[in-house]
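Quick question, first post here. What does this chain look like in 3D?
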Amino acid sequence: MPRIIIGVLPKQIMWRNPKRRKWEIQFIPSSIIAGNTGKIYIKRGSAPKADDGSNTWDHVLNSGASVGDNINDQQEKSPWLDDVWAISDTADQICTLEEQNIAENEKPTPTI
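> Answer (accepted):
Ran it through. Tokens below.
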């Protein structure tokens, strides 16, 4: 999975994708990356604020936590197909980000 860096400025980590099947962001634990000691705030559709008292975020990740949609492959596609944003209260927090799309079905070859 690709690694991304989340800092103290809002960052769009995914763009609108009508073919999104699932997505997951995981905050790499501080036991692996010592500098990952902050919090990451995730918001669907707009930029969040890095503030526990704010109502501008959907999820807060501590070191080692993850969030996403359809992680267990229970649905045909992700319930959230629009953009996703992140911000941290501490500079340069490292995460992994996975996004999978619905596979295009090949057209069957006609038999004669």
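The two ends are 44 Å apart (CA to CA).
The first strand starts at residue 3 and ends at 6.
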